[in-house]
Design brief:
The chain is mainly α. The chain contains 20 helices and no strands.
């Protein structure tokens, strides 16, 4: 078995990379391409994404689990690997044929859709699930780091004007293909050569199809809003505004959800031992962690949006300020549902409840998108996304109310909300004084964060005091 601490460090380094990368590319791409071309790319990717879902089916989660089952049996692991790889190739081929037919008859920008179809090819080539199942996170992190850095350099070198939109799309679409190909030379270390007579790609098709349903429902949040904005609006600029605001809010979200990677195996361990008190103890800490970081990030994005957007995105993206104020609430909603769903329902084998909650959220998302987007465009999509994610959170709380004390989960909210509100007032006052630039935004983040945690110190918050105690202990050593 691999070291959990080591794998956590690999994951942490990669989370830092994917958090920093958009901060480098987003301002540059926004200025160079503009809202309309970014919106075109966002809409086109949302279309190919649906075909990628069909190509993947439910194999990602299932395949990773199968590889972990056979960590100590190379023979069986090899058989399952080639079965699942063959299934991926078949489903990808079917998806590509359907994609080609639909694009031919429904869309006119064939060049865009041909380039972006490379993302479908990446699905067939991807073997990251093998390395995840074997807990070889070092290989994945190294690969993704190199590809991510190379992608950033290529964008900075070759994307210089709105005329370079296709170049940008090609770089973004080649990135997952290169990532997939980069792992192929290492497969022989863990997998034997295939035997065609022993291939059974449809052996577990029903089980895989069962995992496809929640995957599709979750993906509704990710892409349906962008597709509907593209359908209901004349200009693709609305999709450009929405894409950039969503990207920044999701980047901030990674700070809150990073704890999940560590907590899932720990909760699974205690679930196997049926130590319910330990599970509740760790779960309450996870919820408190989300409240403690989610609220200041949410309120902070609202407070600095007016100062941040003009210099970060450049001219033509003024609408992002208001969108960011709405989408910042996703940090809290998704943070909480991540704890309940991925850190509790999945490890305790209550996958059906997670599926139910996600389907409810998807239904709300579709209905509100249909009502709000034709009238309010990107604003409507933002409101629909926030309501949908809070629906998932509320449904999950209702599902676990007999297993966990909901009052204990919600109680820390009031303390952190009070500190967050005080921080927001300070940021609003500073916004009236400071001019929009990077230095002023950094000063606002520092002063707002300092005030927030100072108030928590006065409250004698347990998480803050625990963190300070750990720091003191390390310095003492």
């Amino acid at each position: 078995m691999k070291s959990i601490k080591k794998n956590y460090m690999y994951n942490l380094l990669y989370q830092i990379l994917i958090t920093v990368a958009p901060l480098v590319t987003t301002p540059y791409v926004s200025r160079v391409l503009g809202a309309e071309p970014i919106g075109e790319y966002s809409f086109s990717y949302s279309i190919v994404y649906y075909f990628m879902l069909v190509a993947v089916l439910g194999t990602s989660t299932y395949a990773e689990r199968e590889m972990s089952f056979y960590q100590d049996d190379r023979g069986k692991r090899s058989l399952r690997f080639w079965d699942l790889t063959a299934l991926r190739v078949i489903t990808t081929f079917i998806s590509m044929v359907c994609y080609a037919v639909i694009v031919r008859y429904l869309f006119t920008d064939y060049t865009m859709f041909c380039i972006i179809s490379l993302n479908l090819m990446a699905v067939a080539l991807d073997t990251v699930w093998l390395f995840q199942g074997l807990e070889e996170f070092g290989q994945i992190t190294l690969r993704d780091t190199i590809v991510k850095v190379a992608t950033i350099i290529m964008i900075l070198l070759f994307v210089n004007s709105p005329r370079d939109l296709y170049v940008y799309v090609l770089i973004m679409s080649l990135s997952p293909v290169i990532s997939a190909v980069a792992l192929i030379p290492f497969i022989h270390r863990y997998i034997d050569k295939p035997s065609l007579k022993n291939l059974h790609p449809f052996k577990d098709f029903k089980s895989i199809l069962g995992l496809f349903i929640p995957t599709v429902a979750i993906s509704v949040y990710a892409m349906l809003d962008k597709t509907m904005i593209g359908i209901f609006t004349i200009t693709k600029a609305e999709n450009g505004y929405y894409e950039q605001a969503m990207k920044l809010s999701k980047t901030a979200l990674t700070i809150v959800t990073s704890l999940g990677t560590v907590m899932i195996p720990r909760i699974s361990y205690y679930a196997g031992k049926k130590q319910t008190k330990k599970i509740e103890e760790y779960m309450l800490k996870s919820y408190q962690f989300v409240w403690m970081l989610g609220i200041p990030i949410c309120f902070g994005l609202i407070g600095i949006s007016n100062n941040l957007v003009p210099w970060f995105y450049g001219t033509g993206f003024e609408k992002v300020k208001e969108l960011l104020c709405i989408l910042s609430f996703l940090v809290i909603a998704i943070g909480l549902s991540n704890v309940t769903g991925l850190q509790y329902l999945v490890p305790t084998k209550q996958q059906n409840k997670l599926t139910h909650s996600v389907l409810m959220g998807a239904a709300v998302n579709v209905i509100l998108n249909a009502v709000l987007i034709p009238r309010f465009y990107a604003f409507g999509a933002a409101v629909a996304s926030v309501f949908a994610e809070f629906t998932v959170t509320i449904v999950q709380f209702a599902q676990i109310r007999k297993q966990m004390n909901i009052r204990k989960i919600l109680f820390p909210f009031f303390r952190y909300a009070a500190a967050g509100a005080a921080m927001l007032v300070l940021l609003i006052l500073e916004d009236k004084i400071f001019s929009p630039n990077a230095l002023c935004t950094c000063a606002m983040i520092a002063s707002g964060g300092g005030m927030y945690f100072l108030i928590l110190l006065l409250y004698k918050d347990s998480l803050v005091y625990s963190a300070l105690a750990s720091v003191k202990e390390k310095f003492a050593k």
